[in-house]
Amino acid sequence: MTGSSPSLSAEQGRPAVLAFALLRGAVAAGLGVGSIAVLVLALWISSPTSDSSPGGALHAAAGLWLLAHGAELIRADTLSGVPAPVGLVPLLLAVVPVWLVHRAARDVLVPEEGRPVPSAAGAFAMVVTGYLLVGAAVAYYGRGGPLSADPLSLLFPAALVVAGAAAAGVWTAAGRPVGPPPSWAPVSLHEALARGRFREHAGTVCRTAAAAVAVLLGGGALLVAVALMWHAHPAQESFGRLAGDWAGRVSVFLLALVLVPNAAVWGAAYGLGPGFALGTASTVTPLAFSGRPALPGFPLLAAMPAEGPGTVLNWSATAVPVAAGVTVAWFTVRRAAPPGAAREDAWSPRETALAAALAAVGCGAGTAVLAAAAGGALGTRALAEFGPVWWLTGAAALAWTALLGVPGALLLRAWRLREPGAATDEEGGAAGNPQPVPVPVSVSAHARVRAQVPAQEETLRASHGSDRRWWRWSGRRGGDDAAGAAPGSEPDAASAGAPASRPAAAAAAATPVAPQAARPAVPDRDEGFEPYDFLPTDPWHERTARPEGAGPSGNS
């Protein structure tokens, strides 16, 4: 469509939009098949000793594309003549179809000029349908090839992987919202999701679990790299035996490259303790390498430890889960008690421990899923089990991160809140509310005079007797103060001199003020002077405060 094309309304364009989403799903599947087919055909053309036809190369490409989705392949040309299953999925190869489905579902919901946006459910259904239609055609084409797909594995997990990637794309296009939960969910879940603190805790738990899984994978990859360098000579010999020409070596190198994430998961399972199986009769753990392994000739498998009991060097692999537990504690406290936070702003010990425990559960679940995807059968009998046991690996990841992460988070929280400046001290001062620091302020002449008022009051009381009453605040107007005054007492100097002081004040305001250095010294005040900070409430002031009573009287 061009910019000058007429736009469609929501009713008229709905079939076209759904057809567009269906096409986007089919295109995503076609791009995945095409990329693998181009790579396989390039290797087939460059191989001088290839005895297969182009059809065989295309059948192999179709089988590899289905294997990337988790489907189990059946290899027909075996030495024994018995078909053997191939269920070991190259995880790096699986990234391509997952990313293509995710992008297709996300882009369908991006609004464009002249095209209405479909609903989230419609986009999800159409993209998945278009993708699975192409997948069914590819599976039908590879049915008679050397690598055909098991029909049951096409439904689970292949179709489930496609649906999950499409759902993630729709969720991303919607802005990754959290909630609202479905209507059948408990009311407590609705109330929890409506609170911002719950969302904050949930985000912290998810980020912490993802960081812990990443640390486990990174540590597993480091273990594999160290083992390959330690066994560099056997790995090089295995690489040379598998391929004689450069095209074969490129093929073996690419196969080893797409299996590197699998090897990282295996290394993480080894460091966690359960290890992995090399067939039905052999298990590799840091404590021992027991049984009779069924090892195919492959460079990555040449890095296995020596058979027999483990040594201190093998036991040092437990540093990987220890690092994961420390990661859980660190990422939890990063939000529970940031540096310099007040104690009242930090999470409580219960909230911190609960967040760390939930992050450990998420780490265990993620590790179990990766362990299930990283292993699989490579044949029958002895090769029927190959790789880590998913439930043992997930349970070990949960145990390590919970036992180290929860106490570590509590200790780190207490350490960060130990300083008086970062927490409430015992005397009642609160972090974030420091005690005020006295600042020196210059004292004016008026303030000095007011400081002498108490002494002057004592002098006046002694000279005039105890019967003299000065203006007091009684909370009432009028005659309370007048009635309380002693009969025959002298009138107030302030009230008597108020009318006469107004011209003097105006004249003083019109007089220019001399600089600070040139001002004359202020003489001492009269002993009868007493400054006050309130207005008198005698009848004369009350009358003059009213507008009708202000000014000179008409009888004067």
Give a quick rundown of the structure.
The protein is mainly α. The protein has 20 helices and eight strands. It has helices spanning 10-46, 54-68, 91-108, 120-141, 151-173, 187-194, 196-230, 232-242, 246-258, 260-272, 312-315, 319-336, 349-374, 390-416, 445-451, 453-464, 479-484, 493-496, 498-510, 539-545, and strands at residues 73-75, 84-86, 147-149, 276-278, 282-284, 288-291, 308-309, 386-387.
In words, what does this structure look like?
This protein is mainly α and 556 residues long. Helix content is 57%, strand content 4%. The protein contains 20 helices and 8 strands. It has helices at 10-46, 54-68, 91-108, 120-141, 151-173, 187-194, 196-230, 232-242, 246-258, 260-272, 312-315, 319-336, 349-374, 390-416, 445-451, 453-464, 479-484, 493-496, 498-510, 539-545, and strands at 73-75, 84-86, 147-149, 276-278, 282-284, 288-291, 308-309, 386-387. A 5-stranded antiparallel beta sheet has the order 7-6-5-4-8. Strands 2-1-3 form a 3-stranded antiparallel beta sheet. A hairpin with an 8-residue loop joins β1 (73-75) and β2 (84-86). α12 (319-336) packs across α14 and α13 runs antiparallel to α14. The radius of gyration is 43 Å and the shape is flat. The model is unreliable at 1-10, 421-451, 459-523 and 549-556 (pLDDT under 50).
Jot down its keywords.
556 residues; mainly alpha; five-stranded antiparallel sheet; three-stranded antiparallel sheet; 20 helices; 8 strands; flat; disordered N terminus
